[in-house]
Design goal:
57% helix; 0% strand; elongated; transmembrane; mainly alpha; transmembrane helix; membrane; single chain
Amino acid sequence: MQARYRWLKGAVVATCVVALSGCGTLFYPERKGQMSGNVDPVVAIANGVGLLFFIVPGVIAYAVDFSNGTIYLPSRDSASLDVERLKDVNDVVALETLLSQKAGQPVRLNNELLMVEEVESLDVAMAMVRMSGVLDDEKLATM
């Protein structure tokens, strides 16, 4: 009887941990930061299983995956972030080289209209991308 109780307690804790963290965040952490797209049915169903066990963990799993963007299927049209760490924050030449490689064309950072800012987390960076209006044309076209 004691072994069954421990097993059941462990299963409930494991289910809550998986549901509270969001299945898409666990399955596809590389998708974090996507802003929109088609919903991945595998992640949606896995989150739905959380609703079968307990309502609150299932709702939290959906909220986590939607807020992280991990519930969406990858798309070539969606904006995402590449995280790159520079050894020296003030190394402008290294940053220009990195951006030139990513953009496929020369990038110069000596323009007075350009602002480079170090952020404290990926969430802050994604909020700045959302506020910048990168996908505003797409959103307005669908209205």
